[in-house]
Amino acid sequence: MNNRESTATSTLLRRLNAGAVLDALRATGPATGTELMAVTGLSRPTVHTVCDHLISRGWIDEIEHRPPERGSGPGRRARQYEFNARAGFVLGIDLGQNKVTTVVADLRGDSLAEHTHSFRGRNIGARARLNQTQRTIEATLEDAGLEKSAVLAIALAVPGPVDDSGHVVAEEKYLPGLAKIDLREVVGDGFDAPVLVENDANLAVLAERWRGCAQGMDNVVELLAGERLGSGLFLGGRPIQGGHGAAGELGFLSMVDGVGNTDGIALLARTLGAEAVATGVAKPPVKAPAPDRAASLADAVDGDPEQISAELVFAAARRGDPLAVAVVDEVTARIGRVIALLHTLLNPDLVVIGGAVAQAGDVLLEPLRRAVGELVPNPPEIKNSALGDHVVVTGAVRRALDHAALELFQDVHGARGEG
Amino acid sequence: MNNRESTATSTLLRRLNAGAVLDALRATGPATGTELMAVTGLSRPTVHTVCDHLISRGWIDEIEHRPPERGSGPGRRARQYEFNARAGFVLGIDLGQNKVTTVVADLRGDSLAEHTHSFRGRNIGARARLNQTQRTIEATLEDAGLEKSAVLAIALAVPGPVDDSGHVVAEEKYLPGLAKIDLREVVGDGFDAPVLVENDANLAVLAERWRGCAQGMDNVVELLAGERLGSGLFLGGRPIQGGHGAAGELGFLSMVDGVGNTDGIALLARTLGAEAVATGVAKPPVKAPAPDRAASLADAVDGDPEQISAELVFAAARRGDPLAVAVVDEVTARIGRVIALLHTLLNPDLVVIGGAVAQAGDVLLEPLRRAVGELVPNPPEIKNSALGDHVVVTGAVRRALDHAALELFQDVHGARGEG
């Protein structure tokens, strides 16, 4: 009965078994082989095969354990296994339109060092952007006191869908000049580690599940809403990437009545804010501001619409500035329709607003909840990400960790002998 | 290290282990315990515990096996285990707007008997619909020569989202008079088996993966497009039901420019066809038909728009009737936009058009592929379901089988002793 299907099942089982042993050791302190057998239900030969493999790769250490002595005789020695979080390291990178952030973490995912570099202007050239990314990576490794050879896996988040090849940004508009460049080569230069190029929103929802506000939840959508609007889908207990890695793209939603375009919240706020300042009134269907305070947002930027930023609009709205409030109303009406559609189609328990814009706080969140509640019955919970502008890079760390573990298990074999 | 997380992992592993043993036996012929150990990587005590449990529930039989004799001495006897497909049976029911279909299947999913009853008129009362469903169930069991007690699980497909409670149709419009009725009670009357009430499109995509045109595919969307339009999502290798079982609903897509409403293809074709016949011309943006053949679809129904059916429209379009072709153009334009949106958001490898309307064949499929190709880059493959109007009931059988296996494993325990 050793047909192909059974062999596939068997390989999967062995990986699951190896993963179970590693998870048990990573989550807790040292454990004996017998304890690992009890927790995993695996046979002694299987546990020993898995542990030998993990030891050979340095992920676990074998230590001698002497239990508390009973009576006067010497205690019986037992071998224990212990997870070694510093057997290797991973690198997470968030390469955005405005800045790059890199984090070096150990095998538990705890950060050793991190750096952020803000690009000067949004239209920085591709070469300058990549050079700066490399410098940021090197500075982070130096801070952590690590050589490149210590890094087991690298995950690079990019703002936009990734090509079928899995290593270039699919569309020019997201990172000007970078589309069709093999980012694995540039970022992985000097490393002996795989580079995974991934969509930022897909990583954000991983982070939310790992260390954010969606822990333990099986149906979550993250709206990453800065310059662009992207969504990361975690449905039925696992990340959804689509057949070609492009799940979660929202471009076509511009066809939904009242959405208009799928700019991110930050870009939308800046654009609408600049329009409002330039014309002195907000565009319909935004209510006209009360005349006596109409100029306040404009005053803040000396009447220069170019100086409007999303932060400025949200700050002014928090102060009650009617022009800014009108802009936020329009932004929430548009994003609310996007959430309503995602909710109808995917029925998540939670929608997380992620990225820098989440810092707008309740000034955005409360109207957004109202807008969605008016559009659909039983609306999902809507929360701001607690991970702030670290959500994407945290997801990149998690992705790199998962990949390192996968590589580790690639050549693991279960015992075939007597159990 | 016996914390809660490890215990959960352990329970999951035991179910996986039990499932692996059962899958191996279901897929192939009899096997010895040693063979099962080799295939699953499980210890002898675990294999024996699982097998004893499966024997006690009748799902596998223990048989004596005498290998071919070598030399003159008696062959060594070895015990073998064999899957018993007739240890129990499941019932799949597709309760639609126009008809009810029931299938009784064995534990491999092979049909023993099936019945279909067409309702007289779409506005049949709730009581008559349920009485007929019960009679159809009884006729099917009688044909199969089975008592109700032999049925281990029942899955009932309904056209529309299922309530949070998991046993009533959530909205009145789908099955008039049936919303808020506990369908488990009515359908399960006299059975000692659980009744699962499920959305029809969710079951359709399960069927497509099991025995249809999506076998082995991890990212599939099924558009169930008869009277209503629903979608079943299978993404990242598993069915997506949403936090409250309502994933795949498309009502909100009526807000997409050019979709207009989310009637199913059949209803849309009938409505637009009747309009075209009544007015003698198709509505914009449909092209005006050539004058000399304008009346041909109308002729077919003696000018009575009430007699227009989807089948009639598709048949006339196949003949080249310009009025019918114009109607099909408009139908495909609208459905094409729905598919384009699903593709943008979910990036499936395959979109299957399921339900009775799939029988329209290429007259619908070719224009649909063109329409989607004009809207999005890298469009998904689009196919008609090969399961025809059996797709939903086939999914119901699969769902019932899965549930029966889950119940089976609920009290299974792995060996905790020495491996």
Layout of strands and helices, then pairs:
The structure is a homodimer of 419-residue chains.
Chain A: H1 4-27, E1 31-32, H2 33-40, H3 44-56, E2 60-65, E3 78-83, E4 89-95, E5 99-106, E6 111-118, H4 126-144, E7 151-158, H5 183-187, E8 195-199, H6 200-211, E9 220-225, E10 229-235, E11 238-240, H7 265-279, H8 296-300, H9 310-318, H10 322-346, E12 350-354, H11 362-375, E13 381-384, H12 391-409
Helix pairs in contact in A: 1-3, 6-12, 7-9, 7-10, 9-10, 10-11
Could you please describe the fold and organization of this structure?
The structure is a homodimer of 419-residue chains. With 419 residues, chain A is of the alpha/beta class. Helices cover 40% and strands 18% of the residues of chain A. Chain A has 12 helices and 13 strands. Chain A has helices at residues 4-27, 33-40, 44-56, 126-144, 183-187, 200-211, 265-279, 296-300, 310-318, 322-346, 362-375, 391-409; strands at 31-32, 60-65, 78-83, 89-95, 99-106, 111-118, 151-158, 195-199, 220-225, 229-235, 238-240, 350-354, 381-384. In chain A, the strands form 3 sheets. A 5-stranded mixed beta sheet of chain A has the order 6-5-4-7-8. A 5-stranded mixed beta sheet of chain A has the order 11-10-9-12-13, sandwiched between helices. Chain A has a 3-stranded antiparallel beta sheet with strand order 1-3-2. Chain A is globular. Residues 1-9, 282-294 and 413-419 of chain A have low confidence and may be disordered. At the A-B interface, α1, α2, α3, β10 and β11 of A face α1, α2, α3, β10 and β11 of B.
